[in-house]
Amino acid sequence: MADKDKVFIFDTTMRDGEQSPGASMSLEEKIQISRVFDELGIDIIEAGFPIASPGDFEAVSAISKVLKKSIPCGLARHSKKDIDRCYEALKHAPRFRIHTFISTSPLHMKHKLNKTPDQVYDSIKEHVTYARNLTDDVEWSCEDGTRTDMDYMCKTVELAIKSGAKTINIPDTVGYTVPSEFTKIIETLLNKVPNIDKAILSTHCHNDLGLAVANSLAGIQAGARQIECTINGIGERAGNAALEEVVMAIRTRNDLMPYETGINTTLLSKASKLVSNVTGFPVQFNKAIVGKNAFAHESGIHQDGMLKNRNTYEIMTPESVGVKQTSLVMGKHSGRHAFKDKLISLGYADLTDDVIENAFGKFKVLADKKKHIYDEDIIALVDDSLVLDNKANNLVLKSLKVFAGTGEPQKADMTLDVNGQIKSATETGDGPVDAIFKCIKSLYPHDVNLQLYQVHAVTEGTDAQATVSVRIEENGKTTVGQAADTDTLVASANAYIAALNKMILKREKTAPMMEQQEEKMRGI
Ligand code: KIV
Ligand code: ZN
């Protein structure tokens, strides 16, 4: 298939997605996500905004070193300092993209930038040329594009291409446009910008009106050939176009949208679960493609139709997005070898021996407690091992006893390893979870806000494992901790401890770089 029919998938889960309030990701988590995205076949991965914080810089730099196929990209404002920082973070990759942007709508130019249209115009020439001297893969975005005067947009796009941009991205920054209008914007650019054939047009649609996917597809049908999107549609405010939805729409309605993406759709479910676990943002049950109910058939009429012919009520198969029927997998007699094979079949091919060994130990303990062990249980164990078995952890739960029930106040007895020192405490609380969290606080005094405490059953049944997510906040920084166990209270303690360990790591990493952060606050 010729290039013109390929739609490039540009993922911004780790940049725009991370801008969702509360969706911060650690370096290790970003690397884990990048590996899955690379395998998924994403063409370009926007790994972060390197000037925004030392953590972002480090993440973009690390990701640019691990990607095998996907092209890493970093975001930069129209500032030479931003662009240099972006280049510094990306330069280790054989190929990389610098994505630079400036607002072009009258509202943003006047009130946000305090610049005239002529000043913005001059800035495009200066900064796109500057970026082009560092890489031949430059993307330029006109922020708030859908509220920009069309003639002015044509002029700026022509100039950006003349200055060296190979991709022109049209953001619907505030999720304001509708498909018919967005179609016209893309068509006008294609018809009126004389050098438009030298660049690929891209869509970047936000979901404030629930139209991000529809607008992105309208853009593609009008002639754009790149979609910017995020897994699970996470992003600023109501989010971005959901990657899994645009990709499956193109695949399922290929009769109307005869384009190809390079996405291995059977990994969509895995990518969605990973992003949800890392961010602590649950996927709504009825979410298209990756929701728990996306392939569930409840009513008798539907079930009857499905038994006769799956096409009656399924427009795509669960297998095509990597959803497998919950399968009974292993029991307490399964050995290490079978466990390792199972991990590979679940997509965990590159785990370290330590993580496998730890997960296997947990599997044996679980197999003693729980009658049926499912794929989902094993996935939860491995994800848990990846988070909890970090050697750098400052806090490790050694033991926990909880007294709950009616009458008495709930009480927790806990022993914790705090930086190598074994400490114990007993606390009461408004409920067992409160008592547990108070124990942690008395053993490791800290002052964070608990933003989210969430419990999910991994599989069905009263002996199911629970996955607990905890999000905490300290001085504007947030971290998410997650843990799984058949005992919800043990999972709660471990999830809170995991969030604290990440916060401690974040404090250590950001303290020496405060100067740069202050610079950021001043707006550079
Ligand atoms: O929504 C937006 O305008 C953006 C740009 C930085 C591309 O995220
Ligand atoms: Zn955006």
Keywords:
17 helices, globular, TIM Barrel, 8-stranded parallel barrel, binds 3-methyl-2-oxobutanoic acid, 3-stranded antiparallel sheet, 524 residues, binds zinc ion
Task: Please explain how this structure is put together.
The chain has helices at 27-40, 54-66, 80-90, 106-113, 117-132, 150-162, 179-192, 212-222, 243-252, 268-279, 300-308, 336-345, 353-369, 375-388, 432-443, 488-510, 514-521; strands at 8-11, 44-48, 71-77, 97-103, 138-143, 167-172, 200-205, 226-229, 328-330, 373-374, 395-403, 410-418, 421-429, 449-457, 466-474, 477-485. It is globular. The protein is built from 17 helices and 16 strands. The model is unreliable at 512-524 (pLDDT under 50). The longest helix is centred in the C-terminal third of the chain and has 23 residues, at 488-510. The protein has 524 residues and is of the alpha/beta class. Helix 1 (27-40) links the parallel strand 1 (8-11) and strand 2. The chain has four domains: 3-279, Alpha-Beta Barrel (TIM Barrel); 296-324, no CATH class; 326-388; 395-511, 2-Layer Sandwich (Double Stranded RNA Binding Domain). Strands 1-2-3-4-5-6-7-8 form an eight-stranded parallel β-barrel, surrounded by eight helices. Strands 11-12-13 form a three-stranded antiparallel beta sheet. It has a three-stranded antiparallel beta sheet with strand order 14-15-16. It is 41% helix and 20% strand. Helix 6 crosses helix 7 and helix 7 packs parallel to helix 8. Residues 16, 171, 173, 204, 206, 236 line the site of zinc ion.
